[in-house]
Amino acid sequence: MLFAVHVEVRLRAGIADPQGATIERSLPALGFVGVRDVRVGKSIRVVIESRDDLSARAAVDDMCTRFLTNPVIEDAVIVIVAAPVGAAV
Amino acid sequence: MAPRVGVLVFPGTNCEFDVIEAVSALGGEGTTLWHGDRTLGDVDAVVVPGGFAHGDYLRPGAIARFSPIMTAVADFANSGGPVVGICNGFQVLTEAGLLPGALQKNRGLKFLCQMTELVVAAADSTLTAGIAVGTRLRIPINHFEGNYTCSAETLSMLIADDRVVFRYADNPNGSINDIAGICSAERNVVGLMPHPERASSALLGSTDGALLLGSLLMTAATGERPAVAAVGA
After folding, report:
1. How far apart are CA B74 and CA B97, in angstroms?
2. Residues of B with catalytic annotation?
3. pLDDT top residue among A14 and A7
4. What pLDDT, on the 0 to 100 scale, is given for residue A84?
């Protein structure tokens, strides 16, 4: 079955996020006051063929650990957004 | 015989000929090594130079570490061979797990291209053999992701094991503990953000980088493996 999976790559707590900080500092100029904790991350979408959602999630989790994130500075939130998107092959 | 220095080339690498030029001026012999190759040939040292390997896609160094040549580099490093990563090369070595920690975006979110003053913090790495601790060197940086970070445990280990090789005299990028360069436990793998090859001629404003590359050539020529003296062949 095909599973659509969304990975949100986030900087770990405590890791400096100068992009987020710059956006946060800029927002008051547009009239948005009281905005805080702005963080910038990455959004990665994959479609993966897997026998069930558990194995799809396990495979993406392994991708994140070994490639999609640098565990020293980043972590990931994995969400299966559609399963299945196609019939069994 | 002149020590042979293999300089890796990934798509997007742009400092390989600067390194070869600087090494040649010091009596070494530089040769490029393509990232798709699986062997290093007959080299005495490896430099992973600066640039933007694979366009820095995903993260700097994240894709370069999967290149076929990196398996050979890891084998060479693990057998005690001298390996130096400069700037993007440092990022590649951390992503490859040959050095701990990671390089995050500079504090202040600016690409930095400027001369920096470094203080040598360890005198027995492959890049600082014979250079006294406390020696100050003027060597330029040129990076966006040069802000070294690591876990508290890793930082304690680096300091306890004397693996911080260079510190910035005036921290330009927010690096933890002012770290500009570190080495492996065996001291034969060194990564640093500043570019010694860009400080290797008076015309470039400093010759201090030549001291470091000279140390690398000396290590390469003698085949001495700092701190793993018992390893034969």
Report:
1. 9
2. 87, 195, 197
3. A7
4. 66
Residue with tokens 């306890």: B160
Q: Which CATH superfamily is domain B4-222 in?
A: Class I glutamine amidotransferase (GATase) domain (3.40.50.880)
Under an 8 Å CB criterion, which residues of B touch A?
58-59, 62, 94-95, 100-102, 104-109, 147, 149-151, 174
Higher local confidence (pLDDT), A89 or B187: B187
Beta carbons of B151 and A21 less than 8 Å apart: no
pTM score of the predicted model: 0.90
Cα A25 to its chain centre, rounded Å, is 24
The domains found in chain A, sorted by start residue, are 2-82 (3.30.1280.10)
Nearest-by-CA chain A residue for B154: A72
pLDDT at B227 over 50: no
Q: Which candidate from A18, A19, A72 shows the least CB-CB separation from B149?
A: A72
Secondary structure (3-state) at A26: helix
Over chain B, what is the mean pLDDT?
Answer: 94
ipTM of the complex: 0.80
Chain B residue numbers with beta carbons less than 8 Å from the beta carbon of A16 are 104-105, 107, 147, 149, 174
Q: What is the pLDDT of residues B153-170, one digit of tens each?
A: 999 999 999 999 999 999
Over the range A19-42, which residues count as b (16 or more CB within 10 Å of their CB) and which as e?
Answer: ebbeebeeeeeeeeeeeeeeeebe
